[in-house]
Design goal:
- By secondary structure, the protein is of the alpha+beta class.
- The chain folds into 3 domains: 2-152, Trna Endonuclease, Chain: A, domain 1 (3-Layer(aba) Sandwich), CATH 3.40.1350; 172-237, Orthogonal Bundle (Arc Repressor Mutant, subunit A), CATH 1.10.10.10; 243-374, 2-Layer Sandwich (Beta Polymerase, domain 2).
- Helices cover 34% and strands 21% of the residues.
- The protein has helices spanning 37-46, 93-104, 119-127, 172-183, 190-197, 201-213, 230-237, 243-246, 258-267, 276-281, 299-305, 342-350, 356-369, 371-374, and strands spanning 2-3, 6-8, 54-59, 66-71, 77-84, 109-114, 131-134, 139-143, 148-152, 217-219, 225-228, 248-253, 272-275, 292-296, 309-310, 317-321, 332-334, 337-339.
- A 9-stranded mixed beta sheet has the order 1-2-9-8-7-6-5-4-3, with helices on both faces.
- The protein is elongated and about 75 Å long.
């Protein structure tokens, strides 16, 4: 397919039937990463070239693990330098790029190849304009001349990953650790973080190992956490936590509208914390909320207190019985209403339907500009 002088490889017509040795139909049963990464990765690229294009693969080149030369039908030529790694974690991306770019020089396009590339690594490589290919089918490559764009999606999880103590941020303990890391500046030691999050140091260490591998925190050896990518950490938490999935939620209707709900919140003496669009709109310049989302101890009792009606459709209020009491920590007061911490609101918006993710980005931008206001 030709688009403005570019060729875009079809994601369906990738000719997998012509390369049976490189299909991964049974790879999920194999816990050992396949060998010959360089050759297989290079073929993952060349098998996706448009019809009429040709390529030549050179292995064991002095310049890099592999050199792939590509010719378009009009004779235009490009050179790809492939650097293979058995494993690539987000924290290692910078050092790998520092190694690869001098090898590629000005006349070649750098490409990183591994058995599997996680989503954060793929995101980092794309931001740097570096191509990638893994053996599950995650491929991204762009060439200026000849114009070429190859992109395909493979596995979301590493089929060869060894078992590790902490591989996700699911659950209340992980949520408390994330909140503590985001809400407070470093440096912070493991024991202090454990005390702040109300969990044991061993579990904190395992979570920090995960976050360090994903380049979300920086620490020296067994020392304290020195730096925290709080924005990236909120996004990473949102992959394992969700407003509607992690909390027990119920839908209600305030017949008089969202402004009536806000007024009722200012009068009630029950414990609550507003999150979602309504919470964000009271902090950042975001469009007026049409839905009120609120953490409460008992949805039924709170609804009766505020004269809300249960609603299967047309709801304008969602009451959420929280996954953990941490949602009530570091709350804010705005216009007589209690708001959840900005970090909590951002995570809830990222996992909300509709405009939630877009509103989350607006709130995160406000948080970056006003970090001293919400972070200790």
């Amino acid at each position: 397919m030709r688009e403005a002088g570019w060729h875009r490889a079809s994601l369906v017509g990738c000719l997998p039937s012509l390369l049976p040795n490189y299909r991964l139909l049974h790879v999920m049963r194999n816990r050992t990463p396949p060998g010959n990464i360089t050759e297989k990765a290079a073929r993952e690229i060349t098998s996706r070239l448009p019809r009429g294009w040709r390529s030549e693969l050179t292995l064991d080149a002095r310049r890099a693990d592999a050199v792939v030369e590509i010719w378009a039908p009009d004779g235009a030529r490009a050179k790809i330098i492939v650097e293979a790694k058995r494993l690539l974690e987000p924290k290692d991306v910078s050092s790998v790029l520092a190694q690869l770019r001098p090898l590629a020089g000005k006349d070649a396009t750098p490409v990183v190849a591994t058995p599997y590339l996680g989503s954060r690594v793929r995101e980092r490589l794309r931001e740097e304009g570096v191509g990638y290919v893994d053996l599950t089918g995650n491929v991204w490559l762009t060439l200026d001349r000849p114009g070429l764009w190859i992109e395909s999606t493979g596995a979301d999880k590493n089929p060869w990953r060894e078992e590790r103590p902490a591989r996700s941020l699911k659950g209340p303990k992980a949520g408390r650790i994330v909140r503590a890391l985001c809400d407070f500046r470093g440096p912070i030691g493991v024991r202090d973080l454990a005390a702040r999050a109300g969990t044991d140091p061993g579990y904190v260490s395992r979570v920090l190992d995960l976050l360090e591998r994903e380049d979300l925190v920086k620490k020296e050896g067994r020392g304290p956490v020195l730096a925290i990518d709080w924005r990236g950490l909120i996004g990473r938490w949102a992959r394992d936590y969700s407003l509607l999935g992690s909390n027990r939620t119920s839908s209600y209707l305030d017949p008089r509208g969202i402004e009536s709900f806000r007024a009722s919140l200012a009068r009630t003496e029950a414990r609550y914390a507003v999150t979602g669009s309504l919470g964000a709109s009271l902090l950042a310049p975001i469009a007026p909320a049409r839905l009120g989302v609120c953490f409460v101890d008992s949805a039924q009792a709170f609804a009766e207190d505020l004269s809300l009606r249960p609603a299967e459709s047309g709801a304008n209020v969602i009451l959420a019985e929280p996954f953990d009491p941490v949602v009530y920590e570091r709350t804010w007061e705005r216009e007589g209403i209690t708001l959840a911490a900005p970090t909590q609101i951002a995570a809830d918006l990222l996992t909300s339907p509709g405009r939630g993710p877009a509103e989350a980005e607006e709130l995160l931008s406000w948080m970056a500009q006003n970090e001293d206001a919400w972070r200790s």
